[in-house]
Design goal:
The structure holds two protein chains of two kinds. Chain A is an alpha/beta fold. Chain A is 39% helix and 21% strand. In chain A, helix 2 packs parallel to helix 5. In chain B, a hairpin with a 4-residue loop joins strand 1 and strand 2. The chains are: A alpha/beta, B mainly alpha. Chains A and B meet through helix 1 of A and helix 3, helix 4 and helix 5 of B.
Chain lengths: 165, 152
């Protein structure tokens, strides 16, 4: 009986990770690149701001936010900043079609099982998490980003770092 | 001469049979069958019960694999390669997931043993009870008298 209760408890804990807090270390996981052939993780970008964007090709809001993300990436990538897309719970071929369709140029990882999203307590797609140069969570965005959000909320943080250095 | 012809015929038959067998139509992989054995990973339900963009993507993927002539197992392997092992409705019988198969068996055996021990103990206790003793003649007379007094 104790074993059964223990297993049920383990299952519940596994399904409901503690909610993510700003300031805590960003969960990380080595994942294959979306194009295949190599792998990567958030730690590869240590020393830079990383906007981790969890998305999927079947997700309509992901399609809507993609142009704004790409524009922001192109404008800010010289300022120790990158967007890191994580194609989640999606077919890699469909993900690649999405990347080509929207002309996405920022790096992309593939997380078919959605494990990284699970460790971020993801409720749906898209979601974005700004990770500071030391690997801590600086912003959490549940839902699509907009050009206005990127300019008014993300950019000041990146600029603050650029001004300090 | 006849024996030689028979041997040639047997050899020819042996050569032809495998090709005839392989030409026989294979059982066609069925979307409905696979839908009942894999999950919509976003919805957390069987694919056959799911109606979401991700579920539809999964169905299209399965249809394309069926059209290519893949077997049910090959399609499941492809799904696992894309979505991970959680896409399977039945977890693999290895590692921690093995507990999904072992726990019900262990629980059933433990319950059967507990019931068996309980029944055995109950039967032993009931057989240990003293059988009802007959009344003494004086007590029997007194009981009859009491009953007769209340007889209406």
């Amino acid at each position: 009986m104790l074993a059964i209760v223990g297993l049920l408890g383990y299952g519940l804990l596994k399904k409901n990770p503690a909610s993510l807090q700003i300031g805590q270390r960003a969960p990380d996981r080595t994942l294959p690149t979306l194009a295949g052939g190599s792998s990567g993780d958030i730690a590869d970008y240590r020393g830079r701001w990383v906007l981790v964007n969890l998305w999927a090709s079947w997700c309509v809001p992901c399609r809507q936010e993609s142009p704004a993300l790409e524009t922001f990436y192109r404008a800010e990538r010289t300022h120790d900043f990158t967007v890191l897309g994580v194609d989640s719970q999606d077919l890699s071929d469909d993900g690649m079609r999405f990347v080509h369709e929207f002309g996405v140029t920022y790096p992309q990882l593939h997380d078919g099982p959605g494990d990284l999203g699970h460790s971020y307590g993801t409720l749906g797609y898209p979601e974005s998490f700004l990770v500071d140069p030391k690997g801590h969570i600086a912003l959490i965005r549940r839902g699509a980003v907009t050009a206005d959000y990127l300019q008014s909320t993300v950019r000041p943080l990146i600029d603050r770092k650029a001004a300090a250095s | 001469m006849i024996a030689r012809r028979a041997a040639v015929l047997v050899a020819l038959a042996a050569l032809l049979l495998p090709s005839v067998a392989s030409a026989a139509p294979k059982p066609k992989t069925n979307l409905a069958t696979i839908e009942g054995e894999v999950m919509c990973t976003i919805c957390g339900t069987l694919l056959e019960l799911a109606d979401s963009p991700q579920a539809n993507q999964e169905r299209d993927f399965i249809r394309a694999k069926i059209a290519k002539g893949e077997t049910e197992q090959q399609i499941k392997d492809d799904l696992v390669a894309q979505y991970g092992p959680r896409v399977l409705a039945l977890p693999p019988a290895s590692g921690f997931d093995l507990s999904a198969y072992l726990v019900p068996v262990i629980a059933f055996v433990a319950a059967a043993v507990a019931i068996g021990v309980g029944v055995r103990r109950w039967r032993r206790n009931s057989s240990d009870d003293d059988p009802p003793q007959a009344l003494e003649p004086a007590q029997s007379d007194r009981l009859d008298a009491d009953i007769a007094r209340y007889d209406l």
